[in-house]
Amino acid sequence: xxxxxxxxxxxxxxxxxxxxxxxxxxxxxxxxxxxxxxxxxxxxxxxxxxxxxxxxxxxxxxxxxxxxxxxxxxxxxxxxxxxxxxxxxxxxxxxxxxxxxxxxxxxxxxxxxxxxxxxxxxxxxxxxxxxxxxxxxxxxxxxxxxxxxxxxxxxxxxxxxxxxxxxxxxx
Length: 171
Prior knowledge:
Structural class: alpha/beta
Helix content: 40-55%
Radius of gyration: 16 Å
Strand content: 15-25%
Oligomer: single chain
């Protein structure tokens, strides 16, 4: 559970970072009050998750495409569900797709996200070398790409989010 919460926190922070990178970065120096957000099985006490936070507000109405590696896996399903939960909480649209561990399917999904002008892409890469030209296309169209979970060497991403799978196995 701690691993899931940690990845969710980092994923939402990455979204907030990308969403606000083009906006005003001035700060007033005042500390925001802590807020508690609770969903089905996730509770986060952190001002960054307050729906009145400007970073969170910047996500409202955005479209987030998530190219998952395989939704038949429980871990991957939990990640997809977390994206959906946070999308509902903060008002951004989430489109979770199942790559079914095939490069061709994932390429097609990402191409559709690009054509439909999604604002952000999260990709759990099925084939690191094979997916790079498609991710390059997304970058050329100005769509920020965050890779997560599976290792990716694609240098055009704005962030990479992962956890220690080895340690998770021991736990």
